[in-house]
Amino acid sequence: MSKNKKVIVITIILLIISVILVYAILSTYATFRSEFSGSMKVDNATWKILINNTDISLNATKEFTIDNINIDQSQGVEEGKLAPGLKGNFNILIDPSDTDVSIIYELKLDTKNINSTNIRIDEVKETNTGNNLVQTDMNTYTGIISLDDIKNNVTNNIQVTLLWHDDGNEDINIGEIPEYKINIPVEVKVSQYLGEELQEYNGN
């Protein structure tokens, strides 16, 4: 075989090898791209959440004012009236039963409008399932409802308890006013839970 023929054969072999390598690279890239695209595809999940029977699906934040508080009864105090030494509570029901993802909710209580400086938040807890709430800021409490719980139609009832501390100096007349009400603005924000860690508020 002449030298020129050898060069031509070698050239053809190199071209064939190059074509095979290019094809293999392109095939690998196409497969990777297909797998990547597939993993990033997310179906449209159902999202319907009720806060105290109000649908907040279109707006994940619900703001409202609590003015109906269940007051502990005590001798010498008119039923439904809060007086020094007594407790009262109200409830916020979170119902995500028509939702296809885990959720995280944040409850903010605005206490600056409480007329009596001795009325304090005594306790905030979930009463339906004993779900753990984390205080993530001053007067802010956060909870998580897993997808498994949602599939089991679990709802969370957040009970907020107020206590009127009796220091002996409080003007008790405020508890005797027939039309007196405690107004507490509340904001509930709900979003999809993506595994973020809750940081507990330390008071600083």
Task: Tag the structure with descriptive keywords.
single chain; 204 residues; alpha+beta; five-stranded antiparallel β-sheet; 11 strands
Task: Return the structural class.
Answer: alpha+beta
Please trace the helix and strand order, writing H or E for each element: HEEEEEEEEEHEE
Please give the alpha-carbon distance between the first and last residues: 88 Å
Tertiary shape: rod-shaped
Number-wise, the strands total 11
Number of alpha- plus pi-helical segments: 2
For the sheet with most strands, the description reads: 6 strands, antiparallel
Which value, in Å, is the CA radius of gyration? 31 Å
- Which residues sit in consecutive blocks of at least 5 with pLDDT less than 50? 28-43, 171-179
How do the strands and helices of this protein lay out in sequence?
Blueprint: H1 3-40, E1 50-51, E2 54-55, E3 61-66, E4 70-71, E5 87-95, E6 103-109, E7 119-126, E8 134-137, E9 140-145, H2 147-151, E10 156-164, E11 184-192
Antiparallel strand pairs: 1-2, 1-5, 3-11, 4-5, 5-10, 6-9, 6-11, 7-10, 8-9
Give your account of this protein's structure.
- With 204 residues, the chain is α+β, with helices and mostly antiparallel strands.
- Helices cover 21% and strands 31% of the residues.
- The chain has two helices and eleven strands, in the order H-E-E-E-E-E-E-E-E-E-H-E-E.
- Strands 1, 2, 4, 5, 7 and 10 form a six-stranded antiparallel sheet that branches. Strands 3-11-6-9-8 form a five-stranded antiparallel sheet.
- A hairpin with a 2-residue loop joins strand 8 and strand 9.
- It is rod-shaped.
- The termini are far apart.
- About 12% of the residues have low confidence.
